[in-house]
Here is the input.
Amino acid sequence: MSKIPAFPQRLSTALGDPSIAEGLADFQERWQGNRNRHVSTLEARSGSSFAELAHQTATAKQRAREHPEILQRFCQNAQSRGAQVLRAATAEEACQAIAQICRDHQARLVVKTKSMATEEIFLNEHLESAGISAVETDLGEWLLQCAQDRPSHLIVPAIHKRRHDIAKLLEQIYAKAFNPDDIQTMARVVRTELRPRFMAAGVGITGANILIADTGSVVLVTNEGNAGLTLAVPPVHIVLAGWDKLVETTADALQIVQLLAKSATGQVISSYTQFIHGPIRGDFDGTTGAAADSSGSAGNTPKNPAALNHPGTNTQQKLYIVLLDNGRSDIAANPEFESVLSCIRCGACSNVCPPYQVVGGHAFGHVYTGAIGLVTAGFHHGWEAAAGPQSLCVSCGACAKVCPAEIPLPQQILAVRAKVYANDPKKAKRSLRLGMRILRSRRLTAVTISAAGILTAPLRSQGTLKRLPLPKKFRWRIPPAIPPRPARRLKELKAVAEPPARKPNGRKPAPQKTALFLQCISDRLVPSIPLASLQLLQACGADVVIPTSQHCCGLPAIDMGDLKSARQMAGSTLDVLEGYDRVVTPATSCAIAIKHDYKQLFADDPKQLSRAEALAEQTVDLVTYLNEKLPTTDDLTSSLRRDSESADQITVHPFCQNNTDTSLSQLLEKVCGAKPIPLPEGDVCCGFGGSVSLSNPEVSEAILNRKLKNAAKTQARVLVTDNPGCVLHIRGGAQAQKAPFQVLHIAEFLEQYLRDR
Amino acid sequence: MTIPTADEATGKAESKAHEVDETVEPQEVERFREMAEISGAHVYQLNSKSELTALIKQLADEGDVPVVWLETAANASKPHQLSNFPEPTKRTLGAVVAECAIAETGSVVLLETTRPQMLHSLLSEELLVLIQQNAIVSTLNDTADLITQAADKHQQVTFLTGPSRTGDIELHHVNGIQGPYEVHLAICDFPLANVQNPSFSATS
Here is the structure.
């Protein structure tokens, strides 16, 4: 049952519509500042950090999930207050139940308040086919319904529509001109347009932001006031809510309320927060165009519809609460994914997501948009629905940092990717699968890259392959020239090479040795990075060795979802690197993979897991290592330092997965004697994103362009970063645009200082 | 239309006055004012019933705009008949007494049981909310017990924060989408329960 166009079509439409990125950029700019300000105030006032507050939210939601009696309590309490609670296992069941309630109450017209759950089950289409009209009453949703479109954002559904689009749409509806700059008049159209609809509707349908077990209450958080009219005017109110909206206490609910609007719209709180404790009393006496129930009793579907037509003065509204499963139980049963049910649907994960900012929610998501949609789509709509959108994630981790419910979204998206890959490896792009087959083998990688080097040698120019004829969609980045020899063949590295023979299995290598993990990209494509890293380590007094059988850590396989290859490559890396005093790498991404991802890869293999845990302890990225070894007063630091003026010409892009870490700036400050120039949006991904720059180059290009624009604004001479993937990506883009700054890895940058000593 | 006296209209304040802390820190009042203004509400601090009367007269354009008090238990008039409903732009000034207010968010807390009560705060084009100054609480969490206890008596508890609004078109804020265009909050540093009928002659 797919009512949504296929992913390639959605992506292509999104990439062809510049208003998507424009609208999102406007929103992000306003949202980010307000959100950060209000969150800081809350932190100061509550004495808890955002992470602690998010943990409290997650704990409250988890408690409700783990104790089935809490859900029972909700049902009992809601029913004792007069609501009728129904359970729907599937979207189809929910649609049928709601349509039946409408028929029972002879409602031909229903008014709706924005509810993603009703979008999830395609309720409007179902009601339409049952001869019941559903009118959306949220401004954005109403505009989209008129335009036969669908939401692209959880909170601002029509964010992909610009004022001119809306003026045109209203002109079609009302056959008169609307001034696109008179947003007030356009927005207030719904006030006069929808009043008669509220009046005439036999049923009002809302979602729920929160369900409270202790009181059997439904909480609705809205801004426009349409929820109040939807729930109070028609004689019947139906709430459709995923059961995951449940919390135990009012205090738990308030915990969510205090974070929801700040995360969602950057408001302190929304205009209306309504706690609905039961069906509304009195006054349902036929003043609306809909029939009202005169029985005064609640909780049962009237058996005699004729009774509805006898108005009474002591009438009571009918309240139905439909609790939706539709895959939620499967999520709850899956330890890897269950925490996604803590989501409070704020949409913050979209607002910080670099690829979402380029393509919007129609492509980046299915029904639920943004990172959260990438995780849940498979459970609600099948894995086919998840396959396309998840390929856009750059794994930058920004979503996890703003999530007010502590959901590890990046790991869960990678787990979705692995599931999609396992279901059908052929869905991955053929070029990526071929690349992975080569990368799995060190020898095959060496031979292939060496052959590519020979073949492209005539095209080399100033260290690049700028004369390489690339397809148009890849031309925004100039690839580096493939050097004649990889780093490991340079004489400086050969001098400290340690072949595997010298490190027999089961025997620890000589203690106090520091292994330099070169990283495959640097080794084969940018030998200056490993060379400079070696010189820096040696300058710090380390006894460095280069284990010669080292190869890729497996991160590209993890990024691709090919966990079988990832385990194989990680296993080989364990063989090569374990037992050294320290393992240092100039690739922050690989350090994070070894330190964190390996534990997840080997979670079910106790022997490998314990080896992975040991290696994680020994492994460190170059920047962290140098920060440890270079005290500010150190001779080496002084000799590296030239003059503070140079700091005025440097800006930094720290690897995004590490972006709460300011160690790159600290290191540069130590060496240069002054802080580098802050890069606007410096903590945002550059767009390299594992294989995204190859699989979705247009998206990667747009993200990189924003990074390059920001870098140009700083007027820096050099942009320094700590991850070879970012170096190649940003450098290639900067060269293609002839940007007025150089892009250097931190090792390359410091090595230039060393050379001047 | 029968207009309840201020005594009747503010009767609720008397019943709850004993439940709230008699003292409220001045900085909490200031905080409430600041946050309510951020939400787009107009805030007034009043020291006497005559100031309240003057404010109501002023907001009601000296009598040109009808003032509609929310019904009380003592007076069963229906402030918002649904028959008035299809006229969403006819100007009225609704008035209601808040159960309490929240400094942290600038919200007022309304307890509602019947449909007229619920529609009252939504259908008034302008809404005046009277807040007993000592009923201002500090944080959202301070309302947890109130909400839980209210569940047995009131079908709905509403945190109202500023006017009805939208940002659905290019994030441009527009007030008065389905609810009030303007929200006026009067922080009253005098017992609301003892207010004698201010002259609401303009409201007939």
